[in-house]
Each structure stands twice: as C-alpha cells, then as structure tokens.
Specification:
There is one protein chain. This protein has eight helices and six strands; from the N terminus they run H-H-H-E-E-H-E-H-E-H-E-H-E-H. The strands form two sheets. It has a four-stranded parallel beta sheet. Helix 5 links the parallel strand 3 and strand 4.
Length: 201
C-alpha cells in the first residue's frame, strides 16, 4: 500500500483531478501542486467558478447542450437556419463546430455512440426525441456529424433507419484528406474514403 504523502484534503484533490480526461495520477499530482502554489491566483477562483458552474449549469431540454439557460443560447438564437439539424456525439463536438463557424444550424447531442460491447444501446443515448423533433419542426436536412469510428458509423446507420419514414434528407460529413494533410502520413482508411468521396475540381 502506498504511503500517504500529503493531507487527506490534498490527496482527495489529486484523486479527483486524476479522473479528468488526459490526467493520470502523476499529472494530477503536478496539477494539484501548481494549484496549491498559486492558491490565491488559481485555486480560490477555480473553486468559486466550479461552485457557480455546479449551481447554474443546465442541460438544454431541447438539444442536450450545456449552458446556464434552458433552452440554451444556441437553441434560442433566431439567426440559425431552422431547416437544418446537426446530430453530434457530444457537447465537445457541438462546441468544435461552433468554434469553426462551420454552420449556423440547430443541434441534437446524442451523449455518446452505440456500443453493444460497452452496454450502450439506444436507450442510453438521446435518440428517442429525435424523430419527434424532426416531425414538429421545419427541418428538411439532417446532418449526421459523428466520428469516423466503428461506433460512430453504427450510430449513423441506426439514426438513418430511425428517421427513414420521415420526409427529411439525411447527409453526413465528408471523410478524407484533412486540410494541410500529406498523403504519405494518412492511414489507409482515410485515403480510401478520400478516393471514394472525391469531388469535381
């Protein structure tokens, strides 16, 4: 059993930080020590911000985004195209599309992907409300913007079947060579997709 090297409160801070994505026990210890050294500049403001976030952050009842209001800022924006609905796996994906200013549309956050091996079926995702959103709106195009993984593609096929009875055009993100990408460094799957989905020059 590892010997305790700090007080209970500090150990608890390290354990909680270690649960964050990208942080293991060693990185969590470094982060905790940095926060403690910068207690007034970082630790106190961070604790205050986290307390406020815990008290005020809501999950949007319409799309599944997180915000301090419900419906969220994205859903409440009247400048968005009401005829396009973008399905994404996570809030992080929604935020990435917004940062890129890729499209000004409405979103639907699934909260993950179908993964039978991990026990994640349709009931564990935000799928049940999707057909209703399409029926009760002016949406004419559904863009499935999921990751190019086996689970992502399985989820995309499931959604396509789920909404097949509705008069909605279903599209997906193009897959292929990224901007600035060199062919020699790309994997075979990406190259094959790029060739299959080639466009006019």
């Amino acid at each position: 059993m590892a010997e305790r090297i700090a007080g209970q409160e500090i150990e608890r801070l390290i354990q909680l930080l270690a649960r964050l994505p990208g942080l293991g026990p060693r990185s969590a210890r470094r982060a905790a020590l940095h926060l403690i050294r910068k207690r007034e500049e970082l630790l106190s403001p961070l604790a205050d911000a986290m307390a406020k976030a815990h008290a005020h952050i809501r999950v949007c009842s319409c799309c599944g985004n997180v915000d301090t209001i419900d419906p969220c800022t994205v859903c409440a924006d009247p400048r968005r195209d009401p005829t396009i609905l973008v399905v994404v796996e996570s809030v992080a994906d929604l935020w990435a599309l917004e940062r890129a200013s890729a499209i000004r549309a409405a979103y639907h956050v699934l909260g993950g992907t179908l993964s039978p091996l991990d026990g994640i079926g349709p009931d564990q995702l935000n799928l049940a409300s999707l057909p209703g959103r399409l029926r009760d709106s002016r949406v004419s195009e559904l863009i499935i913007a999921v990751n190019a993984t086996v689970e992502g593609q399985t989820t995309a096929h499931y959604i396509t079947d789920l909404v097949s009875h509705l008069p909605v055009k279903v599209t997906r993100l193009a897959h292929g060579v990224p901007m600035g990408g060199e062919l020699d460094y790309l994997d075979e799957g990406t190259l094959a997709a790029a060739m299959r989905l080639r466009t006019d020059f």
